[in-house]
Amino acid sequence: MGGCVEVPRQRASEAIRLLSSQGLLDRSRKPAERRGGVLIPVSDHQSALRALGEKGIDAEECMEELPPRRPRLELEEMKKLAQDLGLWRHSYHQVGDIVVFNARNEDEIPQLRELARLYSERLPRARSFYAKLETVGETRTPRLVHLWGERRTRTVVKEHGVELAVDIARAYYNPRLAEEHHRVASMVVDGEVVVDMFAGVGGFCMHIAVLRRALVVCNDINPNAVELMLESILLNEGRMRGWIHALNLDASDLPQVLRRVKADRVIMNHPTGSLRFLGTALEISKPGATIHLYLLAPRGVVPEEMLGQEERGRFEVKRVREVLEYSPSKLIYRLDLRVAGP
Ligand SMILES: C[S@@+](CC[C@H](N)C(=O)[O-])C[C@H]1O[C@@H](n2cnc3c(N)ncnc32)[C@H](O)[C@@H]1O
Asked: Is the CB of 270 within 6 Å of ligand 1?
């Protein structure tokens, strides 16, 4: 009973999946690489060898002691660690291999640093830990304090197989938008011209260009965001079906630059400032185009009622969707508008 089996490296993932599906994988220990093969911990090596043999995977019994797997840090345990340090309410998110804690103020930094040290022993993929004090300025970049691990703010994240180059200190990125990027990209149809007025590092743009044969004009006022967007284009080169045209402009200058191009779809993901640019979005849209307008609204406020009267006759509100909780009292909504005519 127990022990491990050795399989050729090329077939290791397949073997692990098979053993796992048959309940034969011993999850308390970690697989290890040896001499071009992979040692996989199993609960019953004879049954494991039989199962692998039936699928034509060459396997041998092995005797090595495989290292125990450190238990994953569970939510309840995380809460307990934080509470022991006097942090009653804390939250964090992971961006690639960087963990960012939301700090309420600078007084919390010493406790968060200790929490980061404890987490670092238990979150195997995390290499750097930072505290975010606030998000500042037009570019929505965070004020960060390094807590633990590598002093590095650049990383690569994967959303639905799309790779994005991110620098948490230099350009806005929120991992909670990953589903929204995919959702909006799925609405695009081949042949569309899409303009993302506030593209950040290009989440919507990359998803669209990977999924559809569309031309995506991706603009942001932050040159760092545009630089990261260009890096992401290279990262996804082999899987892109569409085309990205990157711009580094104030969105209000888009009508001048896009004189000969009108959009089938405009994305306005700047929830704290989008309303000021609705006139610009209408100017660059074809009749019948769709505008995805993101709005920050206090709970209980009907977001449609925040739309200005002067633009009201120029579109129809087709759908309103709650996207994210921004704070306990505020939500981010997406309003899908259909531009009037033809
Ligand atoms: C909420 S973030 C965008 C997030 C991005 N769409 C995503 O999905 O990751 C808002 C962006 O608007 C950009 N921005 C702010 N004011 C702008 C302006 N006047 N023109 C163009 N971009 C602007 C900021 O630099 C920031 O990257």
From this structure: yes
